[in-house]
Amino acid sequence: MNFVKKNIFYLIATAMLIILFAFPEVKLKIKDLFFPVAAIENAVTLNDADYDIQLKGINTTSTNLKNLKGNKLVLLNFWGTWCPPCREEWPTIQKLYDSKKDKVDFVLIAMQDQEEDVVKFLKDNNYTAPVYIAQSPVTANVLPKVFPTTFLLDKNGRILLKEDASKDWNSKSVHEFIDNIVK
Q1: Is the dihedral of CA 101, 107, 112, 117 positive or negative?
Q2: Closest-CA residue to 85 (of 167, 141, 27)
Q3: Which of 7, 34, 110, 147 is deepest in the core (most CB within 10 A)?
Q4: What is the pLDDT of residue 41?
Q5: What are the residues whose beta carbons fall under 8 Å from the beta carbon of 101, sequence distance 6 or more?
Q6: What pLDDT band is residue 109 in, cutting at 50, 70 and 90?
Q7: Rounded to whole angstroms, how far apart are CA atoms 41 and 178?
Q8: Contact 132/57 with Cβ under 8 angstroms?
Q9: Distance (Å, rounded) from C-alpha 113 to C-alpha 180?
Q10: Is the bond into 148 cis (omega within 30 degrees of 0)?
């Protein structure tokens, strides 16, 4: 018993490390709790050429991404109906859209997809977040290397957050992050 009292800190720390390695989902929850932003891109700001993407609206009006610069935060998401992680995060994006559409412009760009597949996916799942298909080239600064890729941009085009993986976009930490920016 004396050994346990003297080494309680080390025993607890060891147990926590074993849990983190044995259960990766615990690690992800802890990461999201303490580090809600996957990657803060402090000095990266998209330029006007990066914003010049002609967008064909699938369930919304067609526009150019540059028309949204300067208004609100922009959640720019590149996804595809063919992408399992993209499909996995969609319910959380829809919930975030439902609660934050007054503070954030949502631009979900379906990539490497047929319009009819996108329409069917949205209809089958009752999704209403604005979805587009790019009608002009996307610059290398924005073009994703993996799917899904999501950017949260401020009014000036500065990248506040970049996530190159599926994420729970309806988490408390994401809501607090947006609310702290929009104040």
Answers
A1: positive
A2: 167
A3: 110
A4: 42
A5: none
A6: very high
A7: 16
A8: yes
A9: 35
A10: yes
Nearest to 56 by CA among 148, 119, 123, 127: 119
Distance CA 11, CA 181 (A): 40
Joined together, the tokens standing for residue 96 give 């975030």
Q: β-pairing, 149-153 with 73-79?
A: antiparallel
- Render pLDDT for 126-158 as a digit per residue (tens, 0 to 9): 999 999 999 999 999 899 999 999 999 999 999
Residue 20 clears pLDDT 60, i.e. is over it? yes
Phi first, then psi: give them for residue 138, nearest 5 degrees. Answer: -105, 130
* Reduced 3-state DSSP string for the chain: CHHHHHCHHHHHHHHHHHHHHHCHHHHHHHHHHHCCCCCCCCCCECCHHHHCCEEEECCCCCEEHHHHCCCCEEEEEEECCCCHHHHHHHHHHHHHHHHHCCCEEEEEEECCCCHHHHHHHHHHHCCCCCEEEECCCCCCCCCCCCCCEEEEECCCCEEEEEECCCCCCCCHHHHHHHHHHHC
